[in-house]
Design a protein that fits this description.
Layout: H1 12-21, H2 41-47, H3 69-82, E1 86-90, H4 94-105, E2 111-115, H5 120-129, E3 132-136, E4 139-141, E5 144-146, H6 150-159, E6 166-169, E7 176-177, H7 181-189, E8 194-198, H8 204-207, E9 221-224, H9 226-229, E10 237-241, H10 248-258, H11 265-300, E11 307-308, E12 319-320, E13 324-328, H12 336-346, E14 353-354, E15 359-362, H13 369-384, H14 410-415, E16 418-422, E17 435-437, E18 442-445, H15 453-464, E19 469-470, E20 476-480
Parallel strand pairs: 2-3, 2-6, 6-8, 8-9
Antiparallel strand pairs: 1-10, 4-5, 7-12, 9-10, 11-13, 13-15, 14-15, 16-20, 17-18, 17-19
Amino acid sequence: MLINKFSQKTAPLFENFLAYSRQGIGAFHMPGHRGGRGCEPLFRSLGGELLHLDLTELRGANLDQEPDFLLKKAEKLAAEAFGAQRTYFLVNGASIGIMAAFLSIKGSAPEVLVARDCHLSVINGLILSGLKPIFLSPVWVEGLSCLPSEEEIQNALQEYPEVAGVFLTNPGYHGIYGPLKKIAALCHERKVPLLLDEAHGGHLKYINPAAEEGSTVDADLWVWGTHKMMGSLTQTGMLHLGSNFQDLNAVEEALELLNSTSPSYLLLSSLDSTRRQLYFNGQKMFTRAAELGESIRDKIRGLQGLKLVDDRFLPAGYGIDPTKIVLSLTPAGWSGIKAEEVLRKRFHVQPEYADRDYLYFFISYAQEKEEVTALIQALSSLAAEIGPDQIKRKDATPPPWACKPLQLSPREAAERSATCLPFQEAVGEIASGWVAAYPPGIPLWVPGEEITIEMVEWIRAFQRMGGYLRGIKEGKVKIIDY
């Protein structure tokens, strides 16, 4: 039965496309696999009825309305649920929303303030928009980059009062978040748009209603990677607009430019279903996740050979997502990269990510208690061993990012004639591309930036430990060919 009444209790896009798929209508349209019948047998057997939802913009499924009728209804419910003026579903990842954000403000000024701990999608947005970034130095917590201070942003706005916007990442990949309210007030006072990468946020308000997020500080635009922790399928996200955002047309034109013309209705249905689940069960879901996270912290906090990043290290006004656990075993002689390998191969425990110093664990509301127990036991075992690394570091050091003005804008650098050099020979050159450890996807350098000896040495050390970097091909990087 098709549904034509819409409320938070319904998931109109998901339910109507599901109902349509069950009607047994002869399909003479895309996609060609016909509800999974044409898929390779093993894939078909695993896909089940979800393959029936891999449909296209069908008029029948849309209640005989325009192709995007139900999508718009579902997005409207999401905006109401999450405190936005307007919400857009993303099926090309949160990255598309971030790139659209930059395209939407590109005509107002040539420069934009950007927190230096930005994701690669920010750099791609800068290339597409032509905006030149003025980088803001982050606050550092135990070698982890966090939201820039109010003072840092205030000083930058005084020096660059005509910027197109302020773009910040909060919380970070590691789960540390900062005080947004005063920063938002600064931006509102100066009528400068505040845009937020909240790809790793969105769920915090279900744990702490006082959490300062895009919706609670009335940011102009914020982007969620809903698949990361909030329960939707991989490659889905949402872009939200606040009450102060003026040019909806600019955002919609940017999304039309970037989005696929054949969106996955399976992924869109996932977003619709996730919105409903969060609306009614979000607090219960993330209270459980937070409790599991705290139980792990309680068990490992006192272990010799293990350093846990927690509230003890945070500046005033900063907090840490209880569903994110960041720890180091370097006091016991384990690099993060080597510890990840041992956890995975010996203990069958898979962290989210590992770098030179840290291991990162994301705790889900869907986590089994047996998994939590296995993680605690594995960490206890490694913390008690002597690891293979000769240097037993107690303190993590930040990566050698530069926050000085770029030689060229990322677009100008990307459009210049380029050549490739072994990265060891690139010191002093101007980058044409970027290099980044992925995840978390924060660039070591960006197009238009001078490559320093510190950056090259960091790459050498990271590779010696077994770390993987994108942007380096066969040992070479792209530089501008003058």
